[in-house]
Amino acid sequence: MRLEHRKCKVKKYAYRINAILLLNSGYSFEEVAQIFLMDDDTVRRYLNIYKEEGVKGLMRDLYVGSQPLLNEWELKLLEKYLEEHVCLSAKEVCEFVKGSFGVKYTANGMTALLHRLGFVYKKPKLVPGKADAEQQKKFLRKYSRIKASKSSEDQIYFADGCHPMHNPIAGYGWIKKGTDKQIPANTGRQHLNLNGAYNPETGKAIIVECEAVNAQSTVELFEKIQQKQNSGKIFFISDNARYYHSIFIKKYLHKHRRIKIVPLPPYSPNLNLIERLWRFYKKHVLYNRYYKNLEEMRWVTSAFFKNLSNYKSELKNLMTEKFQIIEPEFSEIRL
User: Fold this and answer.
1) What mean pLDDT is reported for the chain?
2) Inter-axis angle of helices 247-255 and 215-228, to 10 degrees?
3) Which of 131, 154, 116, 142 is nearest to 262 (CA)?
4) Which tens digit of pLDDT belongs to each residue from 303-333?
5) How far apart are CA 306 and CA 30, in angstroms?
6) pLDDT surpasses 70 at 68
């Protein structure tokens, strides 16, 4: 039995063998049940199976589910419906099934069925309704060409602005059952204006706090990037904001030829890596956190970006150059 236990790769089977070994060592049914967080009748049943069928009997599924109330064709129709619609509750799905197939389910029964069909309860993601999938694919081909042809001195930056409000963002967290957790909220509409650029090769961000994200703060950001990068081209990937086409920016770029603005397709924040960094920043700085004044929030924000290397392991998985293509009917991950 110990040999079978060492070879066993399925946790639930290993627990059953453990239970028999503990009984053999003198533990009572109640003690074994307490160790494995199960009832003692289950432990007795394992012993009876072992007596009748040996170790092989313990290493098989002991539960046979009941037959579903819906047939195979009806289950496929239900899956298709759920793929095209987002139901707010299991009760809503029950009503659809009853109206479509005349079959009555309880909310608990429907929840179990949905899990068996591979569905989970979570929020859908909001995406721009005007996104053009072909334009996104065209941009990614251009991005691949830039990466393939750039020299070792050339650097790529994903840029955009962020305007965090001086107010906590309520997020999910572990709160004791039956209680509420309160976070103070601020009055007024004070906020920070951040203009930033993220370099996927170095994993570093250059952030400018400004009065407004406009042509002037963008030039300030250009200056900071050039201070960090003394030579080579600067590929500046950004959205198509109006100020990028201003005379002020055009004159600046005419004098600083190594900066190349690479515009993203319209309605494509999914292709801008810095958008992920802004979300990460909000999660660590704003979610469920209260700051007495804007100055305190400014200090924490500045410290966060100065010490971005502290989050290296988390950002490694988040800031990958894998981009989601937003299409009218579905989304898929593209390299």
Assistant:
1) 89
2) 20
3) 142
4) 999 999 999 999 999 999 999 888 755 444 4
5) 56
6) no
Q: Which residues contact 5 (CB under 8 A, 6 or more apart)?
A: 14, 17, 18, 21
Q: What is the CATH number of domain 133-168+189-334?
A: 3.30.420.10
What whole-number percentage of the chain has pLDDT above 90?
Answer: 56
Residue carrying structure tokens 């005419």: 254
- What DSSP string describes 96-159? HHHHHH-----HHHHHHHHHHTT----PPPP--TT--HHHHHHHHHHHHHHHHH--SS-EEEEE
This prediction has a pTM of 0.68
Helices (H) and strands (E) in the chain, counts: 14, 7
* 199, two tokens: 């370099």
Residue with tokens 């994903």: 158
In the chain, the percentage of residues whose pLDDT exceeds 70 is 95
Q: CA torsion 185→189→190→194, rounded to 10°?
A: 110
* Percentages (nearest 5) of helix, strand, coil residues in the chain: 50, 15, 40
Locate the domains of the chain by residue range.
Answer: 2-58, 72-116, 133-168+189-334
| Range 83-106 average pLDDT | 90
